[in-house]
Design the sequence.
């Protein structure tokens, strides 16, 4: 009895502790309910609604007859649909090459500074433009591209290179490159922040060991820095896929997809189908569903690839 007494005395406390531990997940679920409610209303419901209405000649408030796959057949037969994918391919190629190379070079130059104070000053100056609204940056570049009063053409005329002056966003062969040049040299960007943070976390001992082995600056970058940035590059590749498929902000503000559809993107195509004269919401829903499906497939493939690389 003297042995069992203390055990029984402590048993209720242990049971209460177990009950509290079992109840805690329910509390967490209750706290998460508002988040899932917001996601359901503003994310999941629109996706399901778009999928449903993509099979209809959708006329909100009016009769919307079922048309089956007619919207998808119209989409596949539309030359603008394929033109928008061609434009996105070029945008993606530039985004994952030149638009990463310059921020990476800037991060390498900043990290090479011996003074921590100098690193802080230059890092702050390079990322300060991130605080500016994106619409302001686009509109400033749009003014620079003005064929009459723009800074670019005025400079070319002043140095005797007037033959190179163009209506940069008004000519089909220069409009898309001009849009891609917005924000040049693209240093005030997420890639620069990611590259910079990872380079700062590399142990100094690795740099010293590379120096003792006789590695120059370029060889050290290829043998030490670049391999250690591989995870960040894979993350940026994943984010670039999402952002490129959703690209259309600058094109809408500056060119509205023109001239001659040379800057047409999927987002602009969806907007035009839904609101610009056609009012074909069923087609717009079908276009949106294809973009959503492409994002899901590409993201699943990239997650699998990332998991394989990690293992």
Sequence:
């Amino acid at each position: 009895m003297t042995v069992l007494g203390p055990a029984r005395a402590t048993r209720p406390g242990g049971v209460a502790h177990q009950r509290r531990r079992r109840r805690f997940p329910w509390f967490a679920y209750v706290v998460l309910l508002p988040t899932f409610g917001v996601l359901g209303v503003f994310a999941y419901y629109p996706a399901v609604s778009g999928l449903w209405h993509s099979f209809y000649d959708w006329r909100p408030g009016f009769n919307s007859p079922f048309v089956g796959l007619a919207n998808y057949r119209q989409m596949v037969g539309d030359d603008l649909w394929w033109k928008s994918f061609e434009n996105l391919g070029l945008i993606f190629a530039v985004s994952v090459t030149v638009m990463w190379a310059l921020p990476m070079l800037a991060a390498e130059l900043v990290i090479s500074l011996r003074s921590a104070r100098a690193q802080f000053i230059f890092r702050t100056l390079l990322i300060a433009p991130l605080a500016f609204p994106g619409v302001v940056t686009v509109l400033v570049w749009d003014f620079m591209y003005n064929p009459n009063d723009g800074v670019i053409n005025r400079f070319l005329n002043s140095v005797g290179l007037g033959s190179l002056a163009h209506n940069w966003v008004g000519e089909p062969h220069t409009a898309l490159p001009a849009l891609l040049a917005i924000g040049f040299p693209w240093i005030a960007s997420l890639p620069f922040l990611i590259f910079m943070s990872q380079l700062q976390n590399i142990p100094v001992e690795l740099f010293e060991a590379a120096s003792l082995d006789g590695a120059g600056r370029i060889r050290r970058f290829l043998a030490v820095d670049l391999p250690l940035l591989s995870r960040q590059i894979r993350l940026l590749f994943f984010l670039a896929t999402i952002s490129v498929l959703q690209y259309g902000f600058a094109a809408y503000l500056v060119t509205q997809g023109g001239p001659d559809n040379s800057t047409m993107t999927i987002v602009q195509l969806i907007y035009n189908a839904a609101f610009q004269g056609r009012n074909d919401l069923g087609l717009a829903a079908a276009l949106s569903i294809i973009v959503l499906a492409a994002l899901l497939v590409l993201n699943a493939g990239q997650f699998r690839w990332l998991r394989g690389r990690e293992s």
The radius of gyration is 27 Å. Residues 14 and 265 are 62 Å apart (CA to CA).
